[in-house]
Amino acid sequence: MRRAAAAGFLYFAIVFAAGFVLGAIRISLIAPLTGDLFATLIELPVILGASWIACLFVLRRLQVAERLSARLVMGAAAFALLIGAEVALGLGLMHRTLETQLAAMKTAPALIGLGGQVLFAFFPLIALAMRRDA
Predict the structure, then answer these.
(1) Are 78 and 15 in contact (CB under 8 A)?
(2) Which of 17, 74, 78, 109 could form a disulfide with 7 if both were Cys (CB 3.0 to 4.6 A apart)?
(3) Which of 110, 104, 125 is nearest to 43 (CA)?
(4) Residues 6+ apart with CB under 8 A from 129
């Protein structure tokens, strides 16, 4: 399970870095033109594509076992780190209080983003299911 947890960390780190760059582009360039909701809808398939590629890369690179438990650990670890980092960024970088951070997470763009994050967490399991079907 250590390998799966390490894979979850690496998966998180790659996707977080990509998301940080894409988020900066979304906030500074796209959202002023389209609004937050449409900017999020534009960004979502890009970050999900990057997440899928990162997932497959990490699974191969760290040779994560083709077991349900290992894939659950990888996805859950990555998801927990991603949510924690998002809250930390809101509190630190955006100088929000915990109350305003939680309120911001209830907006339509944030809920769409959360849906993408949940899908991100399931990618290791989806990759396992696809491999078994092949």
Answers:
(1) yes
(2) 74
(3) 110
(4) none
Per-residue pLDDT 10s for the chain (134 aa) are 899 999 999 999 999 999 999 999 999 999 999 999 999 999 999 999 999 999 999 999 999 999 999 999 999 999 999 999 988 888 887 788 888 888 888 999 999 999 999 999 999 999 999 987 65
21-37 in b/e burial notation, b at 16+ Cβ within 10 A? ebbeebeeebbeeeebe
d(CA 106, CA 124): 27
How many residues would you count in the chain?
134
CA–CA separation, 89 and 107 (whole Å): 17
Q: What is the pTM of this model?
A: 0.92
Which positions ≥6 away from 31 have C-beta within 8 Å?
A: 39
| CA separation, residue 123 to residues 36, 46, 62, 64 (Å) | 26, 15, 15, 13
DSSP 8-state class, residue 49: H
Q: What's the first-to-final CA gap in the chain, in angstroms?
A: 25
| Domain hosting residue 66, numbered range | 2-133
